[in-house]
Structure formats: structure tokens, C-alpha cells
Design brief:
It is a single chain. The chain is of the alpha+beta class. The chain folds into 2 domains: 71 residues, no CATH class; 116 residues, no CATH class. Strands 4-9-8-5-6-7 form a 6-stranded antiparallel β-sheet. Strands 2-1-3 form a 3-stranded antiparallel β-sheet. It is globular and about 45 Å long. 27% of the residues lie in helices and 22% in strands. Strand 5 and strand 6 form a beta hairpin.
Length: 197
């Protein structure tokens, strides 16, 4: 006699639960390595690790009423972008827009991200030259630019990617020039970026 689906499930060996050292910052549930993030817009704009259930609680409509915003997963490689108009003094930087329409540029450094205000007119010119930036989500998406050491990469990425890059630089940087390991790790970071909608 053939076993029913329920009987087959009951007979299945138990799998060990997935081990994780990370937990949701809201409810405390364990989260996978590939968990999602929320941005707490109060204060310094802290990233919050979130389980899937908590992440889903803060959709765009609810985020407009509160201080948590979903960080999306969208990544797009951008065409040539006139970043020289932005006055970025280094070859590795990311730009985040704010609710008031202003743009704030950051460059990752061994001390964390250093930031400065982007000229509003310059930002509007860059957006006019790249229509894909018109729907850049404020605070949670960024334009990531890498023109350091002969590279020419421009991406629209979730802001948590930018903070991952900053963490790489902070952990690997040695001396004044960065040392032998930081630049290969930065190259690896960019080689692993893939487009996703």
C-alpha cells in the first residue's frame, strides 16, 4: 500500500536546525546569513537586522508613517555617469538621497564613511543624464561609484551593500595606502555584485 504524503513527511528524518549567530533586532528570532535589513531613520540611520516576518511588517506604506524603512534588494549597473559633476574627491564613493531632495555623498574609509553635501543643482544634472536615478529610493538605495585605480563602475545598490563595502575597508586597511589586502578585497566586492530587480 502506498504511503500518504502526511505519512511520508512523518517518516522523514529530522534535519538539524540551521545554526546562526545572528538574530532579528526586533523580535530576537534567529536569522539566516542572507537576512534582510531595515533602516531606522531616527538619529544616525542605523541598519537593523530583520527576520522575514518583521521585514514584511514595514512595507512602503507603513514606512511612510514610522521610522523603519525596508532596504530593497535591487541592484542595477548604471551607464556612464558624470560623477565629476558631484565633486567627489576620491574614486570610491556612494550617494544617498534624502526626503527633502538633497543628496549626501559618502566615501568609505578606515574610520568609517566620511560624508559631504552634494550641490543640489549638480545632483539634478546627474539625474537628468541618467533617468534610472529618478526612482532612487531615499535613504535606502545609493549610487555606488568606483573609479579608483583605473576602474569605471557605477551601480544603483541597496544601502546595506555600501555599508558592507565600508566594513571591508575598515577591516582590511593597513597604513596610509591601504596595504596589500584591501584593494583585492574591494575588487572582489565589485566582482560579486550582480544585477537583480
Amino acid at each position: 500500500m502506498k504511503a500518504t504524503a502526511l505519512e511520508r513527511i512523518i517518516r522523514m528524518p529530522l534535519r538539524a536546525p540551521t545554526r546562526t549567530d545572528q538574530h532579528c533586532d526586533l523580535c530576537g528570532a534567529p536569522v539566516e546569513h542572507t537576512h534582510r535589513h531595515l533602516l531606522d531613520t531616527r538619529g544616525a540611520g542605523e541598519l537593523i537586522c530583520a527576520c522575514q516576518a518583521c521585514w514584511l511588517l514595514f512595507d512602503r506604506e507603513q514606512a511612510a508613517q514610522g521610522h523603519y524603512r525596508q532596504i530593497p534588494r535591487r541592484r542595477l549597473r548604471l551607464p556612464t555617469l558624470p560623477v565629476d559633476k558631484l565633486g567627489v574627491p576620491v574614486g570610491l564613493a556612494f550617494v544617498i538621497t534624502r526626503d527633502d531632495g538633497s543628496a549626501l555623498a559618502h566615501y568609505p574609509s578606515p574610520a568609517g564613511p566620511t560624508r559631504w553635501e552634494v550641490d543640489r543643482e549638480a545632483w539634478l544634472e546627474v539625474v537628468a543624464d541618467c533617468p534610472r536615478l529618478r526612482d532612487l529610493r531615499t535613504d535606502v538605495e545609493a549610487v555606488l561609484v568606483n573609479t579608483a585605480r583605473g576602474h569605471d563602475e557605477r551601480w544603483l545598490v541597496p544601502v546595506d551593500d555600501c555599508y558592507r563595502l565600508t566594513a571591508v575597508i575598515r577591516s582590511e586597511w593597513k597604513g596610509l595606502s591601504g596595504g596589500d589586502t584591501v584593494w583585492p578585497r574591494i575588487d572582489q566586492f565589485f566582482s560579486e555584485l550582480t544585477e537583480r530587480s
